[in-house]
Amino acid sequence: MAARGPGRVSVLLPTYNERDNLPLVVWLLVRTFSDSGIDFEIIIIDDGSPDGTQEVAQQLEKIYGSDKILFLCPSGTAYIHGMKYATGDFIVIMDADLSHHVRLHVFYSATQKEGNFDIVSGTRYKGNGGVYGWDLKRKLISRGANFLTQVLLRPGASDLTGSFRLYRKEVLQKLMEKCVSKGYVFQMEMIVRARQLGFTVGEVPISFVDRVYGESKLGGNEIVSFLKGLLTLFATT
């Protein structure tokens, strides 16, 4: 029996201070899905942005209709909250800062359909994938984190800290029940738990472009949290 490609797709779009980026990324997503004929919805989940992101999200919901754009204020973890409202067979998680290319059908359609994968993950460290706009320090941090993860956890995937992924909805629900990490470690744990549970993971090379507007939240605290989370996963998996 031939593998079935994605049906309705729900995009979970967590935001924090993305007032300038949100209208453009939503417009690009709507155009991309409409051009490809894929049924979709975009769920914007804002974490109390003080810059007016919530007002922008509410306006977008009115413009495109609540059947296509849904704005939420989470009462807990953004992804868990968003999944409660997602109606798609597949769920895409991506950043709202334009660092991820929004042509999602290129990202997942062929790979998911051909391999019938449970997860399709974007990778910056395979094929023609790469990172643009980072300084040398941040590139070294990212490469070093990925190298340590590969050595300690042997996850069977080349990019553990990326957040541009597609999941079968039921697979994402099961993984969320198992994962206990937050922040940057969360993305890593999702792939590690997927391997433990026997889910299949496909990879697609992507070009990651540093945000144009706003500031990255990567700092010393995040690096320390990553290292702690990595050691915890190493000791418990």
TrEMBL record:
Subcellular localization is given as:
Endoplasmic reticulum
Name under which the protein is recorded: Dolichol-phosphate mannosyltransferase subunit 1
> Kind of enzyme, top EC level?
transferase
Q: Where does this protein come from, organism-wise? A: Loxia curvirostra
Q: Which cofactor does it need?
A: Ca(2+); Mn(2+); Mg(2+)
InterPro entries, sorted = DPM1-like, Glyco_trans_2-like, Nucleotide-diphossugar_trans
Q: Which molecular-function annotations from GO does this UniProt entry contain?
A: dolichyl-phosphate beta-D-mannosyltransferase activity; metal ion binding
Query: Subunit structure, briefly?
Result: Component of the dolichol-phosphate mannose (DPM) synthase complex.
Identify the keywords attached in UniProt to this record, alphabetized: Endoplasmic reticulum, Glycosyltransferase, Magnesium, Manganese, Metal-binding, Transferase
Indicate the family of this protein: Belongs to the glycosyltransferase 2 family.
The role this protein plays is: Transfers mannose from GDP-mannose to dolichol monophosphate to form dolichol phosphate mannose (Dol-P-Man) which is the mannosyl donor in pathways leading to N-glycosylation, glycosyl phosphatidylinositol membrane anchoring, and O-mannosylation of proteins; catalytic subunit of the dolichol-phosphate mannose (DPM) synthase complex.
Q: What is its EC number?
A: 2.4.1.83
Q: What pathway does the annotation place this protein in? A: Protein modification; protein glycosylation
Which chemical reaction does it catalyze?
a di-trans,poly-cis-dolichyl phosphate + GDP-alpha-D-mannose = a di-trans,poly-cis-dolichyl beta-D-mannosyl phosphate + GDP
The answer, when asked if Manganese is one of the entry's keywords, is yes
Q: An example of a Gene Ontology BP annotation on this entry?
A: GPI anchor biosynthetic process
Q: Which GO terms describe its cellular component?
A: endoplasmic reticulum membrane
Q: Cite the Glycosyltransferase 2-like domain residue spans from the record.
A: 10-175
Q: Which domain of life is it from?
A: Eukaryota
Under the heading Pfam families, the entry gives: Glycos_transf_2
